[in-house]
Amino acid sequence: MATLKVFAGQSNMPLATGIADALDIQLGAIEFVRFSNENIKVKICENVRGCDVFLIQTSCPPVNEHLMELLITLDALKFASAGRITAVLPYYPYALADSKDEPRISVAGRLMADLLSEAGANRILTMTLHSPQIVGFCRIPVDQLSGVPTICDYFSGVDLANSVVAASDISRAKVTEGYAKKLGLPLVVIDKRKDVDGDMRVQGVIGEVEDKDVLFFDDEIITGDSIFEGAAAVKERGADRIYAGCVHGTLAPGSVERIADSGLECLAVTDTIPLSSASEKIKVCSVSKLFARAIKAIHQETSISALFQ
Q: What is the DSSP letter of 305?
């Protein structure tokens, strides 16, 4: 069996270190050099010839810088004669650009798949993609882990006896249903539609929320606007405490402060994306052990289907 080696880019070192610790190995030696012209040089500082290599790099600010670092590192590993290269992408780059919803635009999620393969990746390991067609974009094997159980495990420690799960709008009902099933809770839906001015407005709440704790879930939270609008809608209808959770806490600038000042009891996220700033209301649930188990299974060529659930 080829030697297992795990390397990491500079996007999320705490997660990469956690994965290596769970595997009981050291991260591979790698050097990144930034020149005055903003070019990047990547040097693999140990022998990887014939090795089974895993490269960890998530998509987070500065996104394009980390993307170039990922591609150049993949290329360096390929031409250092690594046996097999798996790109470990906790948050897939340009995951939201998954369809051609306007004329003359790039479906950048598909482009990412092409770039990863061309740069040297033989397979991809990722978590909770925005939409399933991204797997179809890829011409190499893709293993997609789910972050839903990790988030639900956190809320299993909360008293849910009088709780419901809420979808922030009808389009997210299918995604939110997965959380509701996992927690064994009923699902309600915020009914949002465009008004005469073309703006999305809350029209009502489908389901009973009066005197109940409400949990909002989604795969990703960027600005938090949908959660805040939904929270206001259920509060108006007599809801008690409001919680939220998501796999990818993208959290655009200013959103952490808005969450801290909001009426949310807490927001639970995984560590696929490092937080830009800390908040007592944001609870980070690590997925390092889950990724470590997946890496071990891929390396040993055993089934990892149980990890997809």
A: G
Q: How many helices (H) and strands (E) does the chain have?
A: 9, 14
What is the Cα 45 distance to its own chain's centre?
29
Contacting residues for 184 by C-beta, under 8 A, at least 6 apart: none
> What's the CATH number for 4-145+288-308?
3.40.50.2020
Instruction: Supply the pLDDT for residue 194.
Output: 67
> pTM above 0.85?
yes
In this predicted model, what pLDDT tens digit does every residue of 258-299 receive, in sequence order?
Answer: 888 888 999 999 999 998 887 889 999 999 999 999 999 999
Give one word for 44, left, alpha or beta, with left for phi > 0 and alpha for psi -120 to 50: beta
Q: Are 269 and 60 in contact (CB under 8 A)?
A: no
Q: Is the pLDDT of residue 169 over 80?
A: yes
Q: Can 4-145+288-308 and 149-285 be said to share one CATH topology?
A: yes
Decide: 200 and 223 in contact? Cβ < 8 Å.
no
Burial of 261 (0-12, 13-18, 19+ CB in 10 A): exposed
Domain ranges of the chain: 4-145+288-308, 149-285
Tell me which residue of 280, 282, 254 sits closest to 270, measured CA to CA.
Answer: 282
CA distance readout (Å), 248 to 126, 129, 197: 12, 10, 32
Name residue, tokens 């998509």: 59
Question: Is 182 labeled as catalytic in the residue annotation?
Answer: no
pLDDT-derived band at 93 (thresholds 50, 70, 90) equals very high
Selected catalytic residue, list 100, 192, 235, 289: 192
Peptide bond into 274 cis (omega under 30): no
Pair of tokens at residue 254: 């200013």
- Where residue 50 falls (left for φ over 0; alpha for ψ -120 to 50; beta otherwise) is left
Fold of 149-285: Rossmann fold (3.40.50)
